Amino acid sequence: MDLFTHVVFAYLLSFVIWGPASPQYIAAGALAGGLPDADALLFPLARRFPLLEHHGITHSILGVTLVAVAGSFLLPFLPYFPHASTFLYFVAMEIGGLSHVFLDGFTHFAVTPFLPLSLRQLRLDADVAINIAMLTLTSVTLVTLSLERGTVPFTLWVETAWLLSAIYGAYLLMRGVARWRADVARKREGYSHVAPTTNPRVWMLLDQDDSPERYRIRYRRYRFGESVPSPARSMEVAKVARTSGPVRTPQEALERTYAAAMEHNGWMAMRAHAGEAVEQGNVFEVRWYIVEVAGFGRTLGVRGTIDRSTGEMRLRSGFFRRPTGGPG
User: Fold this and answer.
1) Residue 158: which of 15, 13, 4, 11 has the closest Cα?
2) Higher-confidence residue: 200 or 71?
3) Residue 31: beta bridge partners?
4) CA pair distance 126, 176, nearest whole angstrom
5) Which one, of 27, 3, 180, lies nearest residue 100 by Cα?
6) How does strand 313-321 pair with strand 298-307?
7) Which of 47, 43, 14, 16 is closest to 31 using CA atoms?
8) Which residue in 13, 67, 82 sits closest to 35, CA to CA?
9) pTM for the complete prediction?
10) For residues 96 and 14, what is the distance between their CA atoms, to the nearest angstrom?
């Protein structure tokens, strides 16, 4: 999740727990909800101390607890934080920090909550780390609460906070239930993995094999509540060395452009991806795309051409309209 969503979620969660009569604990929870991402500032040290890398010790129960202990004593010395119960400040910051760990583990990015005692990961694959739906909800929440604070009756501001809390809760519940249903379909149809997409209702059922010599993928779109399954798609390519000369078939076009496409977009190389090639006059038009990205009819990947006579490639990264075989 993005930093602003972490802060807003921790704020609303703290509001639900403490109520409007305890703004100091709500603020403490919101602050703690964003602090784990401060590890980005430790990047130079992370090369020497791996525990300090992003999603490292600061995204663990131990790290959150240490920050909460320190914060519970330091907060009363900061502006807008009155002297109050040290223990309750600790509880508020602990809950806010743990909400950050949970939200990151809720996505396709893994966290290791039991560091340094265990490397066991939490990765529920129930949401993408950053998506337009959540960013929009977070933006609306920030603007609404900011505009209403001090300008509308206090009771209306409280009702708005409760409504927004319910919306966030409903979103997470829908994502969780949809992930469970997608996993049921995965097991029934023999896929090895479920991946969320940027569309909360759409998931990808995946089978993927990536070796030094070949890349293979089988996938299909799962739509939450579907009555008729979408067709499955598959692709397999050999990872060939870069060569020049004639390109005779779409399959050869895919194999010749695979390595170059992965170099063009390193993020695509780390995610489930697929490609297609179509003959267009003297060239093959090639599109490689991340399977899980499917927002507003567009996908992220690499597209371009390879000359049928010479094998010369022209590729570029970016967002483009989904190809025929792309995620729906």
Assistant:
1) 15
2) 71
3) none
4) 6
5) 3
6) antiparallel
7) 14
8) 67
9) 0.85
10) 7
23-34 vs 61-74: helix axis angle to the nearest 10?
140
Report phi then psi at 129, rounded to 5: -65, -40
Which two tokens mark 114?
Answer: 């039991």
Main-chain phi, psi angles of 215, to 5 degrees: -130, 130
Taking only Cα atoms into account, the Rg of the chain, rounded to an integer number of angstroms, comes to 24
Selection from 292, 318, 102 nearest residue 202 by Cα: 292
The beta strand positions in the chain, using DSSP E, are 193-196, 202-210, 214-223, 233-238, 273-280, 283-290, 298-307, 313-321
Residue recorded with tokens 């010369």: 312
Q: What confidence category does residue 297 fall into, taking pLDDT thresholds of 50, 70 and 90? A: low
Q: Are strands 214-223 and 233-238 parallel, antiparallel or unpaired?
A: antiparallel
Q: How many other C-beta atoms are found inside a 10 Å radius of the C-beta of residue 191?
A: 22
Amino acid (1-letter code) at residue 319: F
Q: Is 301 helix (H, G, I), strand (E, B) or coil?
A: strand
CB–CB of 290/271 below 8 Å? yes
- Cα–Cα distance for residue pair 288/317, rounded to 1 Å: 9
Whether 323 shows a pLDDT value over 70: the answer reads no
Task: Dihedral sign for Cα 249, 253, 254, 256, please.
Answer: positive
Query: How far, in Å, CA of 202 to CA of 197, rounded?
Result: 6
Q: Which two tokens stand for residue 28?
A: 């403490």
CA distance readout (Å), 196 to 2, 131, 221: 16, 11, 10
Alpha-carbon distance 5 to 133, whole Å? 11
* Mean pLDDT lowest among 37-46, 213-222, 229-238: 37-46
- Give the containing element (helix H, strand E) for 155: helix 154-189
pLDDT reported for residue 326: 47
pLDDT higher than threshold 90 for residue 321? no
- Cis omega before residue 116 (within 30°)? yes
pLDDT tens sequence across 157-184: 999 999 999 999 999 999 999 999 999 9
